[in-house]
TrEMBL record:
InterPro entries recorded: Dimeric_a/b-barrel (IPR011008), DUF1330 (IPR010753)
Stated name of the protein: DUF1330 domain-containing protein
Domain DUF1330 as annotated: residue spans: 37-111
Length: 124
């Protein structure tokens, strides 16, 4: 299962307004021992990239038992992160320092969804 965006995915993501803010929904399913690795990733991320790229953590929490979902659609954790623009997200994932920590995220997860969102009523 994919846990990181590919170059093709990023190109589609940037096909929208590159200066548009985006809130990224992260649905996370951890591998064995993944919570510890993800915590290391999140700590390194917060120390460097929130300030450098204007990233804001909106919410992070454990997933509960789904009230409405098909089998296999429960997630271990949910994270909402606001990026000031699609371009900032793209620049961040290409940053050499980010590349040094992304292996922690990849090893921590057995499955993930990264879903860019936009407010209702936004044009484009």
């Amino acid at each position: 299962m994919a846990v990181d965006p590919s170059g093709h995915d990023l190109a589609l993501f940037l096909a929208g307004d590159a200066d548009e803010p985006v809130v990224m929904l992260n649905l996370l399913r951890f591998a064995d021992g993944g919570r510890v690795l993800y915590a290391r990733y999140a700590e390194a991320f917060a120390e460097t990239f929130t300030r450098r790229y204007g990233v804001q953590l909106i919410y992070a929490g454990d997933g509960g038992v789904p009230l409405v979902a098909e089998d296999g659609q429960a997630w271990d954790a949910v994270v909402l992160v606001r990026y000031p623009s699609r371009r900032a997200f793209s620049r961040m994932v290409a940053d050499p320092e980010y590349q040094q920590i992304t292996h922690l995220r990849a090893r921590a997860l057995k499955e993930a969804v990264l879903q860019p969102t936009r407010p209702w009523g936004a044009t484009g």
